[in-house]
């Protein structure tokens, strides 16, 4: 069974970042930066990392320095992790990012500030104007998966986000799951479908 490992990776003098990662047991198809939810590297994050590795992706999650990282913090941590993946032999055009919950917003930020092969956001962020503003500046192919339960995106807000993403000029797809919450644990069927969409997005764009 695929296992996670943690190491302190030093990119430049005086600066290091903690990475938790899992390696495929067979051929590496590409590399994915996994941006974690609130609470840091949880069991759920480790499960996501190992599940991606089981699909052939070298997946690594940087430990973000605070519970509410700034956009600059997210980008800096992602850049270091991307460098680690490249050092491990992943080609630049086979790099992507995925985030869940808080990490979903972080992945959108990365996809709007870096040119990667693919990006996926699973939930994350309740401030529609902020989400739409970021999505309008997308520079990487982006898949956004959102539930509408509780305080998630309402139908009209969802349409605004989808229109903003479409205006960016890159390939995007924004999917709303009625009845699912932001963690997708209220609707197992939606969770399975969202996972398959995630894998298909990376399959299509990182090749």
Provide a short characterization of the protein structure.
With 207 residues, the protein is of the alpha/beta class.
What's the pLDDT, averaged over the residues? 89
In whole angstroms, how far apart are the ends?
Answer: 25 Å
Given helix and strand content, the structural type is alpha/beta
Instruction: Catalogue the unreliable spans.
Output: none
For the sheet with most strands, the description reads:
8 strands, mixed
What characteristic shape results from the CA principal axes? globular
Q: Report the sheet-strand fraction.
A: 15-25%
- H/E series: EEEHEHEHEHEHEH
Q: What fold name stands as the CATH topology?
A: Rossmann fold
CATH architecture assignment name: 3-Layer(aba) Sandwich
| CATH class division | Alpha Beta
| Count of individual domains | 1
What's the count of strands?
Answer: 8
Query: Helicity, in percent?
Result: 25-40%
How do the strands of the widest beta sheet line up side by side?
Answer: 1-2-4-3-5-6-7-8
């Amino acid at each position: 069974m695929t296992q996670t490992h943690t190491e302190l990776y030093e990119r430049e003098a005086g600066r290091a970042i903690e990475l938790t990662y899992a390696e495929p047991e067979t051929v590496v198809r590409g590399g994915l930066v996994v941006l974690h939810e609130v609470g840091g590297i949880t069991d759920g994050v480790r499960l996501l990392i190992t599940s991606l590795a089981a699909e052939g992706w070298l997946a690594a999650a940087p430990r973000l320095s605070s519970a509410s990282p700034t956009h600059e913090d997210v980008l800096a941590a992602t850049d270091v992790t991307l460098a680690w993946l490249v050092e491990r032999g992943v080609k630049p055009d086979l790099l992507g990012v995925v985030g869940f919950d808080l990490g979903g917003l972080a992945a959108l930020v990365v996809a709007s500030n870096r040119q990667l092969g693919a990006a996926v956001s699973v939930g994350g962020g309740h401030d529609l104007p902020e989400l739409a503003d970021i999505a309008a500046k997308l520079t990487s192919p982006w898949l956004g998966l959102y539930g509408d339960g509780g305080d998630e995106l309402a139908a009209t807000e969802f349409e605004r986000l989808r229109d903003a993403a479409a205006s960016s000029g890159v390939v995007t797809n924004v999917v709303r799951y009625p009845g699912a919450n932001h963690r997708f644990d209220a609707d197992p069927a939606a969770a399975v479908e969202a996972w398959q969409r995630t894998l298909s997005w990376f399959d299509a764009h990182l090749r």
